[in-house]
Each structure stands twice: as C-alpha cells, then as structure tokens.
C-alpha cells in the first residue's frame, strides 16, 4: 500500500486523525476545511508521486549498481584467473631460471677446460717458437733459393703477432674464447705446415746438391728420401749397386747429432743389408755446421756438406 492510500484511509476511518489534520490546517469552516484538506491531500499526493518516481529512479540506479557489481565480480574473476596464469608463468620462469643456473655452471666448467687447452696451446706455441728461432739462424743462407719460403715466414710472423693479440683479448673477452682458440689452432697448424715445408725444402736441396756433386765426380746416382720401416727413414738415399749413399738433411748439426745419425745409419745397415749394396758412404747435409761438427764428421768418416760446400772429403 502506498503512502497516499494509507493517508486517505486514515482520513476516512480515523476521525481523530481527520480532526487533527483539520486543526493543523486551520480549517474553521467545514466546507472550507474540506477544500483545503482536498488541496493539501492533492499536494501531498503529488509529493508522494514524486517520492515514488524518485524511488523508482533509485531502484533503477540500484539495478545499475547491481549490474556494475556483477561486472566487477566478473572482472575480479578474470583477474584471479590471470593471477593464476601469472603464477603458472612465474613457476615456469623459476624452472627456466634453474636451468639457466645449471647451464651457467656447465659454462664455467667448459670455460675451465678451455683455459687448460689454451695453456697447453701456449706451451706448444713456445716450443714451436724455439724451433722457429733455430730455423731463422740458417734462413739467410737459403734466401736466394727459398724466396717463397721467406714470404711464408714473414706471414708466419704476422700470424703469430695476431696470435699474441688474440691471447691478450682472451683475458678480457671471455665470451670470445672459442673463436680465439680456433684461431690459435689454425695458426699453430700454419706454423707446423711452414716447418714441414722448410724441412721438405732442405731435403730437396740436399738431394739436388748431393746428386750434382756425385755427377761432378762421374758417379750417376740420384738420391731421394727413403722409409725402411716405422723406425728407420732417411732424407738422403741412393744406390747404383756398387755404391750406396745414405744420410740426413738438417738445418744445423753439432758433434752429438752427427754421432746419433752415424749410429742410426749403422743400425739400419745391420737390419737391412740388402738395401745397402756395395760401398756405403754416410752423408750429412746441413745449412750450418756448429763448432766441432767438421772434426766429428772427419773422425767418423762422414761426408759433411754445409750449404752446398763440402766440409769433409767424399773419399772415393
């Protein structure tokens, strides 16, 4: 029941209420009072109507609030779902972080192994430098016949300069370690190849010079390198059935090296007699003969040739 209906009911049924209303309204004359009462009731009815309309607007607003509240709960639910998904992602990130830490540990172990390899390479490089320094002592005497080799050696110095620069960078740039190691391996290989080329060039020169000197004495023997087995191989070897030439080609020789070569040749003569028919002449070709080498070669009856010059006699 609305406020208006309740008010009219009270006016109809409750005389005391009706008289009280009339008294409050200052109604003296009944008819006038009734008219005033009707007017007041109408005003009150309009007021009540406005209240009803306001209440309806309030209900509409309340409904909108309920709708907004429902949307908010849906948003909260979506946020909770997103939070759950985020939690799952965070868990995955923790797992990834754990794997990353494990990989970092493996990288540190690999890094330690790499440093060990770098250390070994540097030690090997120092040994190679010793060989290069030894070869440089005889390099001047080979310049005219070994121009290509001189160019290679110059390149070798340039490569080794870059090696030293790269080794310094290894201490500063750990992330470039593998690339630097590969450069070191490549350059060490280049040094070894250069040494092999130099050794091969000395062997070729030795055989050419010995063949030429023999022909100058009327002996037609062409010498070359020979491998008898895994233990015995010689840089110089040639035979015509009556005379056999056998020996080594070295960058430099001293008394002790001459003695070792003599012993090796003698051992090969004992083990492979069929390879050494006729008279056997032991020969050593070198770029540089160290002090005492000529005397040791003469004492042992070895034909010593230093840079195309005979230091001991052939003895034919």
Shape designation: rod-shaped
Strand fraction equals: 5-15%
What number of domains? 3
> Based on DSSP secondary structure assignment, what is the total number of beta strands?
6
Low-confidence stretches: 194-198
Compute the average pLDDT. Answer: 84
SSE pattern, N- to C-terminal: HHHHHEEEHEHEE
SSE-based structural type: alpha/beta
Proportion of helical residues: 55-70%
Measure the end-to-end span. 152 Å
The number of helical runs is 7
Strand order of the largest sheet: 1-2-3-4-5-6
The radius of gyration computed from the alpha-carbon positions, rounded to a whole number of angstroms, is 57 Å
* Biggest sheet descriptor: 6 strands, mixed
Protein name: DUF8196 domain-containing protein
Pfam family, one: DUF8196
Organism: Vulcanisaeta souniana JCM 11219
Domain DUF8196: 204-313
Description:
The longest helix has 108 residues, at 30-137. The chain is built from seven helices and six strands, in the order αααααβββαβαββ. The chain has helices at residues 3-13, 15-25, 30-137, 147-172, 177-216, 255-271, 293-300, and strands spanning 224-227, 233-239, 243-253, 279-289, 303-306, 309-310. The protein has a six-stranded mixed beta sheet, sandwiched between helices. The model is unreliable at 194-198 (pLDDT under 50). It is α/β, with parallel strands linked by helices and 316 residues long. It folds into three domains: 1-109; 116-203; 205-310, Trna Endonuclease, Chain: A, domain 1 (3-Layer(aba) Sandwich), CATH 3.40.1350. Helix 3 packs parallel to helix 5, helix 4 (147-172) packs antiparallel against helix 5 and helix 6 runs parallel beside helix 7 (293-300). Residues 204-313 form the DUF8196 domain. It holds the Pfam family DUF8196. This is DUF8196 domain-containing protein. InterPro entries: DUF8196.
